[in-house]
Amino acid sequence: RILNISSLLDEKSDFSVTRRIAAVRRTIVFFFLIGVFLSFKLWVSDRLFPLVSVFDTIPALIYPFDYILIFLLIILMGINLFHWRNTLNVIILLILLFLFIQDQNRWQPWVYVYFIFLSLFSLSRKPSGNENCLLLCFRLIIMGIYLWSGFHKMNLSFINGTFKHILIDFLGFQN
Fold it and tell me: Taking the CA of residue 15 as centre, how many other CA atoms within 13 Å lie in the half-sphere pointing to its CB?
């Protein structure tokens, strides 16, 4: 029997939407893990830059407890990459919330975008029937990020300063 490719790509096909959701989930978790590895010092308290806690009453985790927590986060994300469990995702989100409260420097744009994406997976309890809504939410978030970024570039400082330097330095145009 020949596999019909057009049926896999059909918007109404449950198979294609389910596979797209799984691909999006794996991509988010994978690149979140890459980001954590690339910014490892951001996630531990043993660094030159000080921790800025949200609340003064919550003490910062000290070595080795901060390493234990971050390695637990990495292990849980690795497990969730291959064997998705909503319970594990909720635990990951709770660990991330605790780490966010520990240090405001961890509130990087890429971190909270991934956090929002992972939260959406946990909010959609029963995946069947919600796939198209979930994909729409992801699209709206990405569109919102690009619109907000573009909105902040609509100012005189960007046009007279940054954009001018882009044209001169990178593209070789002269004044």
Answer: 7
| pTM to 2 decimal places | 0.76
Residues 6+ apart with CB under 8 A from 50: none
Residue pair 164/156 in contact by the 8 Å Cβ criterion: no
CB 55 within 8 A of CB 161: no
10-67 tens-digit pLDDT = 555 555 777 888 888 899 999 999 999 999 999 998 888 888 888 888 877 888 898 9
Residue showing tokens 């902040």: 152
User: For residue 172, is it left (φ>0), alpha (ψ between -120 and 50) or beta?
Assistant: left
The answer to whether the CB of 53 falls within 8 A of the CB of 101 is yes
- In DSSP notation, 40-87 reads HHHHSS-SSSPP--SSTTSPPP-TTHHHHHHHHHHHHHHHHHHS--HH
- Taking a C-beta distance cutoff of 8 angstroms, is the pair 134, 124 a contact? yes
